[in-house]
Amino acid sequence: MSNINWGIIGCGNVTEKKSGPAFNKVPNSKLIAVMRRNAEKAADYANRHKVPKWYSDGDEILNDDEINSVYIATPPASHIDYALAALAKGLNVYIEKPVTLNAAEANTIAQAAKQSTGKVAVAHYRRQQPMFLKVKALIDSEAIGDVRTVEIRMWQSPRPQLITHLEDNWRVDPALSGGGYFHDLSPHQLDLMLYFFGEPVYYSGRGLNQSGLYGCDDHVSGQLIFDSGVVVNGSWAFNVAESESIDECLIIGSKGSISFPFFGHSVTTRIEGIEDITDYPALEHVQQPMIEKVVSYFNGQGDNPCSIDEAATVMKIIDAFSKPV
């Protein structure tokens, strides 16, 4: 296997612990350079993480001959431009979620990938974490029988504790994020539904701004129906009292249920009246299992752990769910 030499475009908070260090911990993978428009912050990141090179311009990192793959971790508004530029140069691309501002942009990247020698994978990294692999195994083995319905509840305060809050708060600026906290957090939930149940045959929803705290949705609801007959109902609210916060997925089958938090570390099964709770240790770098699969894919040694086409489907659902009432 050849070495996958990485450049990170956008070495912000998400790369500090969740992903950045993992690129040097995965076999056949090395972090060569980082880029951030703020040169001082780029240099500081490179110094602290022992990265050989840093840049303050995207073109510089794309033109570094030592780099053959880039990880795009900027706010979503610039994902498409960096992805298209990288693919035009034949570079492999690993893109943060949400993959783009909307489905149309995701489809544009998918078309560009077909014309490029570079490959594209998307950072829906929960697919490779042990906890969610266990949930999938339980579903596939029919441990709870035939899955009938799924309920997703993601209710948080106007300042969710699930994310790192930055001064610019770009997550609630639709021009940068595509929407609000729903656009930022729902890819974690919606992609897992696709991973568990396949591509939906129907989806519809609505979004509204109840609190008026910022200029985008803070309450979204939607429904998915899969070819197998599984029905998923989702509710996302980012305007409730802190005491009422909840992060839960409940999967109901003909023999029992599976429940888990998307941002937690335990899975509860209730099968024919018997409850079992399994705890999973927190990962030091939550993206490391996914990055390992991406490196294998880029090296031609495995399948794509999450394709741009799958991510485009997630964006189609997000577009449909966030239509105004």
Automatic annotation (TrEMBL):
Signal peptide: none annotated. Residues 4-124 form the Gfo/Idh/MocA-like oxidoreductase N-terminal domain. Transmembrane segments: none annotated. Residues 132-258 form the GFO/IDH/MocA-like oxidoreductase domain. Keywords: Oxidoreductase. It comes from the Bacteria. Pfam families: GFO_IDH_MocA (PF01408), GFO_IDH_MocA_C3 (PF22725). SUPFAM superfamilies: Glyceraldehyde-3-phosphate dehydrogenase-like, C-terminal domain, NAD(P)-binding Rossmann-fold domains. The keyword Oxidoreductase applies. This is Gfo/Idh/MocA family protein. It comes from Mucilaginibacter antarcticus.
